[in-house]
Amino acid sequence: MNFLYFPNESENTVYFATSKNTDKVKELAANSQISFTTTPMSPQDASTVRVTGADTKMVNDRRSELFEAMDKKYASFKMFDQKARDNMNVYAATFKEAEVFGHGTDKISFN
User: Fold this and answer.
1) How many CB atoms are closer than 10 A to CB 86?
2) CB 97 within 8 A of CB 106
3) Cβ atoms within 10 Å of 14's Cβ, excluding its own
4) What does the pLDDT look like over 26-40, one tens digit per residue?
């Protein structure tokens, strides 16, 4: 899943979009806590991040801004036309702790 991370805005929040017609939306409505693991994009960034128990919140008021950032970060996101984008929800996943794996393991906590 493609995601966005703005460390200058919040070090413990990531954003993602998904179609409104997916089981994921129903599951988030029933239980807003998620877990996820990131995969490094390049050999220079050899860190994997694992988060459990992140709280999600729909943030559709930021769709335009986040879709623009997705277009810049992921070439494949540009394939979504306006109709597809109108059928997407955007979520913020905020977490209190993350494990970072790369050259050893570190646990990072956020207040």
Assistant:
1) 10
2) no
3) 22
4) 999 999 999 999 887
